[in-house]
Amino acid sequence: MNFGFWDKFVGGADPKRFRKKAEQYLIQTTLIQLMNYGKAKWIKTEEIADFLLNKPLTDFNFKDERVQKWFSGEGMKKKITESTHKLRLLGHPIIAGSGRKGYRYANEECEDVDELWEDRKRAWENSRDDILTQAKIDNELLDKVIKKMKEGQKKQKLLVVQMAYQKYIKNKEEE
């Protein structure tokens, strides 16, 4: 059998299946860590990577040489960033902090949820990139969080933040 570069690199006969399984497991593990710890504090990419590498042995071992090679070739930070983006697209209220803060799971159970979403809005407002897509995703995620919240002061604050999101999106679309 003739193996290609990726076959030899990860040491297997089916690198596409291996990569797909590794990415799925990375997404699941990242979600678990953010849901468990990300409601109370910022979780840095390094902490997620450390969690993966020190996780007890399961059916998918991040200490395995093939996984190490895959991460070294693909870039662990890049893969973790991609996994958090995919989780956001699936409807999980994960936000990235500015200034290398890391990630937070900013749902209705989070103590400082209103401040987190306000910080997120400020971060992309000051960005020079085309952030209209990110603003729309954030607005949808924020809407889900607001719908799950019970009446209260935080919900009112989040509604104000959401109105600012919608105003920003409307202004950008009119430009």
Q: Please, could you describe this protein's structure?
A:
This protein is mainly alpha-helical and 175 residues long. It folds into 2 domains: 1-105, no CATH class; 107-175. Helices cover 66% and strands 3% of the residues. The chain has 8 helices and 2 strands. The chain has a two-stranded antiparallel ribbon. Helix 6 (113-125) packs parallel to helix 8. The model is unreliable at 5-10 (pLDDT under 50).
Write the layout of secondary structure elements.
Layout: H1 5-10, H2 15-37, H3 45-54, H4 65-74, H5 76-89, E1 94-96, E2 103-105, H6 113-125, H7 132-148, H8 153-174
Antiparallel strand pairs: 1-2
Defining key terms:
175 residues; single chain; 66% helix; two-stranded antiparallel sheet
